[in-house]
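Private note to self, pasted from the team thread so I don't lose it. Backbone tokens:
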């Protein structure tokens, strides 16, 4: 028989055991919640830096916000007007670097509207895939200081930093059109030495930001007519203005050859090298709010101009980030003929030249039938690599008629190994001159 003291001790032990085994087995983390897109962007940023793929957030907001979130394509105003402006100055892994590493699909964001629909409270589900894993980003960050040290950026002006980094990226990467994830990442550029435009832009962004020069990633399309395709480039701040920079289009296929045709250009002369191969901004970069936050220079930056970033500021404070707005409507009264209006195809369709030394190749531009009478004269111009020694020679420019129109064919012969550009210009009867430039090399 138990005495009273022993009974009390046994009872206490039983109570303790009951408390242990009847309590929650797993401790649940508090549900994340946001009441506006800025708060949601911070949550997504924190998950993105850890490369979390699937997570959910309780969101209280309007149906307008839901529509923005569910637009998973390149004009998504949440990713490109919120997430890419949530910029912590202590790291270059967030903002544009994070956004440009996110692959947008139709299932990237889903919103459960069944939860408290009447109270404008929903569950936002994210299913994010990244071009670059966390270990790969850590690899990139471990190599950036060494790259900048070798470029000696600490002793350079901002303009000199931009030029040195531009040259490094063009020298590092050979353009590659594969669809592997690494081809769109800076990790792939550093390890494979070949990549797509997304990687060129990420390299420019990461290296310039780490070198102390404000830079942003820009998405859109580029090219001519039906061959226009998704593209990425940068804007860079020098002085109080921003300038366009497209390292991909400055780079030739040759490993050690590039030019400055798309280097630190303004809004009026970015595409002056070939006005018919234009850059078209995605919707988030065309709004009045974006233009106000990042005022573009009208003409190209020239060495010797002020390049100190006096008042340039990127939206590190989420409350000052660019609000989603609709783009300005284009002014139809300024519309002119473009190469798309005249040309329905070309050969090679990629616009890339590849010819062996001593061999001949043909370049073709197919002109639409109803535009036949508009063309007055056709000319061509060859530009070769840095040495300006001609690597090709033309021997015939001819015109043939087809059922759908007619074709201009330029035959040429590889003469000397090196990079080459061939610019074919169509002078129109209304005074316009439209041009297409093929780029490539003689092997």
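Design output:
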């Amino acid at each position: 028989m138990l005495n009273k003291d022993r009974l009390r001790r046994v009872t206490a032990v039983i109570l303790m055991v009951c408390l242990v085994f009847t309590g929650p087995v797993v401790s649940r983390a508090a549900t994340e919640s946001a009441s506006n897109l800025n708060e949601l962007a911070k949550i997504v940023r924190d998950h993105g830096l850890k490369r979390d793929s699937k997570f959910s957030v309780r969101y209280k907001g309007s149906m307008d916000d839901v529509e923005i979130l569910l637009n998973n394509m390149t004009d998504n105003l949440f990713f490109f007007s919120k997430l890419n402006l949530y910029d912590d100055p202590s790291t270059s892994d967030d903002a544009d670097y994070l956004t440009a590493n996110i692959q947008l699909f139709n299932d990237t964001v889903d919103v459960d509207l069944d939860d408290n629909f009447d109270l404008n409270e929903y569950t936002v589900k994210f299913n994010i895939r990244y071009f670059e894993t966390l270990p790969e980003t850590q690899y990139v960050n471990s190599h950036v200081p060494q790259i900048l040290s070798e470029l000696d950026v600490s002793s350079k002006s901002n303009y000199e930093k931009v030029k040195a980094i531009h040259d490094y990226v063009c020298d590092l990467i050979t353009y590659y059109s594969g669809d592997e994830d690494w081809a769109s990442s800076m990790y792939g550029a550093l390890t494979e030495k070949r990549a797509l435009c997304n990687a060129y832009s990420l390299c420019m962004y990461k290296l310039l930001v780490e070198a102390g020069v404000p830079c942003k990633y820009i998405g859109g399309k580029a090219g001519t007519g039906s061959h226009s395709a998704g593209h990425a480039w940068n804007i860079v701040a020098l002085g109080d203005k921003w300038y366009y920079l497209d390292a991909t289009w400055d780079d030739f296929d040759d490993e050690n050859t590039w030019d400055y045709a798309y280097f630190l250009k303004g809004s009026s002369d970015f595409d002056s090298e070939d006005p018919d191969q234009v850059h078209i901004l995605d919707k988030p970069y065309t709004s009045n709010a974006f233009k106000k936050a990042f005022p573009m220079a009208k003409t190209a930056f020239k060495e010797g101009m002020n390049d100190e970033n006096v008042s340039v500021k990127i939206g590190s404070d989420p409350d000052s980030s660019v609000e989603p707005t609709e783009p300005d409507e284009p002014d139809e009264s300024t519309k002119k003929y473009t190469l798309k209006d005249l040309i329905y195809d070309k050969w090679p369709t990629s616009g890339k030249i590849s010819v062996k030394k001593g061999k001949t190749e043909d370049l073709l531009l197919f002109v639409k039938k109803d535009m036949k009478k508009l063309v007055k004269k056709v000319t061509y111009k060859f530009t070769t690599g840095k040495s300006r020694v001609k690597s090709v020679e033309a021997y015939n420019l001819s015109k043939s008629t087809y059922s759908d129109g007619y074709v201009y064919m330029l035959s040429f012969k590889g003469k000397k190994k090196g990079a080459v550009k061939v610019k074919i210009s169509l002078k129109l009867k209304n005074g316009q001159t439209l041009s297409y430039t093929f780029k490539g090399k003689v092997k």
